[in-house]
Amino acid sequence: xxxxxxxxxxxxxxxxxxxxxxxxxxxxxxxxxxxxxxxxxxxxxxxxxxxxxxxxxxxxxxxxxxxxxxxxxxxxxxxxxxxxxxxxxxxxxxxxxxxxxxxxxxxxxxxxxxxxxxxxxxxxxxxxxxxxxxxxxxxxxxxxxxxxxxxxxxxxxxxxxxxxxxxxxxxxxxxxxxxxxxxxxxxxxxxxxxxxxxxxxxxxxxxxxxxxxxxxxxxxxxxxxxxxxxxxxxxxxxxxxxxxxxxxxxxxxxxxxxxxxxxxxxxxxxxxxxxxxxxxxxxxxxxxxxxxxxxxxxxxxxxxxxxxxxxxxxxxxxxxxxxxxxxxxxxxxxxxxxxxxxxxxxxxxxxxxxxxxxxxxxxxxxxxxxxxxxxxxxxxxxxxxxxxxxxxxxxxxxxxxxxxxxxxxxxxxxxxxxxxxxxxxxxxxxxxxxxxxxxxxxxxxx
Length: 446
Description:
Number of helices: 8
Largest sheet: 8 strands, antiparallel
Number of strands: 25
Shape: globular
Radius of gyration: 24 Å
């Protein structure tokens, strides 16, 4: 007999796959996405007609399938991808949310956005150029974000005569690099997005390849959305106190369960205060329930009247996260202005936002050999580095390796609200590309 948790996991694993595409400029990401949508019959007739009209006006004999995702005028004029383009499509076997991310170095930060919730990343490489710095950068971002599955799509195989040796060399180099970063699963597929080889249909030109097409792999890759297997985490978003004649004493705490399962009668701890209570009731969709699981949005009622507000976290007393004011993390810097030691910022973690100071920037990642450049002093746009941040108030922070939801945070400019960096608490990579930092509490300003 399967448990309730296993039933939830089995249901989620067969319904939805979130994936992102990445790669250097002109590697063919948008063409791959367009081919994927077109050949899987996921393009509406009017969309295809619009693409055909634009392509014909440019003197192209065949429709430019990249236009199915490159919707901005500047993207179409320059033939590049600038912003993240999200597309939703489905086949008989699975539903998909796809994020087509830019390839330019200055838009690497957009790849962080697209891959932050992805279960799989498709990294494209031009078969003529092989693995280049931007390829390594995207592999590093995927590893930092703990994307569990990476597909290496070696594109434009038609331009290298569909040679097996070219594919094998690129696949070997990328696999070795990504494995050093700790990427748990890497699948290499030779394709031609323009011609449609191995995208949806198997290629007639590469009989030496016996693996799946891109779509077949996307449909069958085992992806677990089992958030219920993790310890329960419930960030409070809103306190509900109607104080009406019908509900004179009602006090509920509304939010979305980030992970785990909540049960009526369970002992819980409210963080960062550390006060304890018991779950007296759970309301979901206007009905009282005995159990709720991630990612449901619910209202939790406790047996005791405790001072709880937005930003507090409710967790099982048997397995609460540690609270800290010393955040050691890896960040991807996404703003145009540099992030410097001593900068005063806001740190947003789940529903909680606190003041903070960047106390130290111990290192910046060098992508060529995965070494750490010590004490850079600041991080500029698209840099990946380690930081030590001191917060004004304690945070209930998990390690990012344990929870992508409660182990991540944003650093924000308090002056104008600009997002400065996306952070991941704890160790950076799952392997040897790590830096150990000790924080000096005596010099904190808070």
